[in-house]
Amino acid sequence: MTSSPAEPQGLRERKKARTRAAIQRHALRLFRERGYAATTVDQIAAAAEISPSTFFRYFPTKEATVLYDALDPLMVEAALAQPAELSLMGALRATLREVYERMPEDAWQDERDRQLLVFNEPELRAPMLEQYGDGIDLLADLAARRVGRSATDFEVRNWAGAVVGVVLAAFYTAGGDPDRLLHSLDDAFAHLEAGLPL
Amino acid sequence: MTSSPAEPQGLRERKKARTRAAIQRHALRLFRERGYAATTVDQIAAAAEISPSTFFRYFPTKEATVLYDALDPLMVEAALAQPAELSLMGALRATLREVYERMPEDAWQDERDRQLLVFNEPELRAPMLEQYGDGIDLLADLAARRVGRSATDFEVRNWAGAVVGVVLAAFYTAGGDPDRLLHSLDDAFAHLEAGLPL
DNA sequence: AATATTTTGAGAGCTACTCTCATTTGGTAG
DNA sequence: CTACCAAATGAGAGTAGCTCTCAAAATATT
């Protein structure tokens, strides 16, 4: 049986989406109000009006409520849509600008909170870095398509690693402030493109 | 310089050092035999013949038994001792070669086990990556000294980030095999020095 | 309306980690 | 050798993240 692609599916799906959003919203609010460590999963569950066991059906860990990055899929989509005449690095910079420009103000505010939280809670940094690790694969894939080489090519992966490293450094330098991060990243990419002269 | 002999301390100090080493040795052995997750702190404590509470007096977390990197201080020392005529990247490569060449075979074997363990246990990757994050500061410091700029200089930190990123990518590519990693790193640094052409 | 499937809540259980307090052990001075 | 102090240890209780099981409730299907 072929089901219609996307859109508002059955009642079940919509309810699940709502529950998921509610958990995340309450979690982030509580983290902001009382701090990450001081907030227990039970408290989040109570605020979202679900049982603690249900919490773990929606998020594998407490961290995951913070770390799910809504921007990532948008980035991938935007990156693939960049015109072919742009250089690899040019495409990257354009992608970044596009995604952030198109983001509505409330989403932007959420992103601000999220990044600040991650930056200030040491417990959250490690798992965030793990996501950066996955970013290498993503970027290697993008680069591979653009320059017509394999995603497992050593130089392609090396390039992707450097980009991720540069983003990481910018994140630390920006102190969890996404506005500063955005500006730093453009400079960082320019510096990278120039061959990182010191 | 504190390259002090540091030999005959009091009995207390020596006993502590022995206890610490025993805990770590048994921990790594058990991890190898039964897997990281399947080994409990209580089991490690029992094997090392200490109480569970004492375990946490020696290591802040279970992870720490794996993640303590004996190479880091050696790297820093070797890096600072590199002759001034070498380029920044040249000094980095020389440092790497030196430290690994001087490492005795048994330490090398331990390092192999350690890296393989970290690579294969997802739970250990995040904290390892966190160490990589700290590596940015270390490298920025080194670079700053060598090129006579500030360690907070944007370009210096950007360079350090790229180096860490490249190391990270190499680690993933090497699959936790330090022999491969060592070779890949030299290529990776050469590619970086050339400006990461694709 | 009856039935099949999915989602949920309740609760028990495991383990990493923290804290407190009494006991032991190593170092030192009379 | 004895007495004393400080550091290290062990025992135990407690917290919280996370897993698992099972029965009840909600939703989809016929």
From TrEMBL, chains A, B:
<feature type="domain" description="HTH tetR-type">
    <location>
        <begin position="17"/>
        <end position="77"/>
    </location>
</feature>
<dbReference type="Pfam" id="PF00440">
    <property type="entry name" value="TetR_N"/>
</dbReference>
<keyword id="KW-0804">Transcription</keyword>
<dbReference type="InterPro" id="IPR009057">
    <property type="entry name" value="Homeodomain-like_sf"/>
</dbReference>
<dbReference type="Pfam" id="PF17754">
    <property type="entry name" value="TetR_C_14"/>
</dbReference>
<dbReference type="InterPro" id="IPR041347">
    <property type="entry name" value="MftR_C"/>
</dbReference>
<feature type="DNA-binding region" description="H-T-H motif">
    <location>
        <begin position="40"/>
        <end position="59"/>
    </location>
</feature>
<keyword id="KW-0805">Transcription regulation</keyword>
<dbReference type="InterPro" id="IPR001647">
    <property type="entry name" value="HTH_TetR"/>
</dbReference>
<dbReference type="InterPro" id="IPR050109">
    <property type="entry name" value="HTH-type_TetR-like_transc_reg"/>
</dbReference>
<protein>
    <submittedName>
        <fullName>TetR family transcriptional regulator</fullName>
    </submittedName>
</protein>
<keyword id="KW-0238">DNA-binding</keyword>
